[in-house]
Amino acid sequence: MSKPVTPEMVIEALRAVEDPELKKSLVELDMIRDVAVEQDKGIVAFTIVLTTPDGVIVECNDEATRVLETDRAGLEGASVTRFLAPDDADPMRFALRHRTPFARVCTITTPQGVGRNVELRVRPTPESGTMQIILHDITRQLEAEAERADLDA
Running DSSP on this structure, what letter comes out for residue 63? Predict the structure, then answer.
């Protein structure tokens, strides 16, 4: 007869499972909760706690709707990372997960497929315990700088 499975054995087995972005064990990152084993039914259950919902937009202002060319209903509940290239989305996810500030100039793609140059900033908001994601459209500013550089050349 096989040895009964314990919650500790489940946790030990899950040590081999890594978060794909952070390259660390889910156990090491303290993402495994509520391990339960029902021996008689052959059921093992646990909860994986995500440290951030991948930049899900809870609320947005008029600037965000203008920059992303959509209405609030089209943004709220969506992930900000869906508008970003992987090279920009991955560091943003890391910042959200670790609740660290992040800033980068990058290109976002609107739902209509239009590219916009934005300054993307992520910062913790201690009063609410959430992370604030700020998009500032700098497309016109970059176009003006490029035009000035062409005139100087």
Answer: H
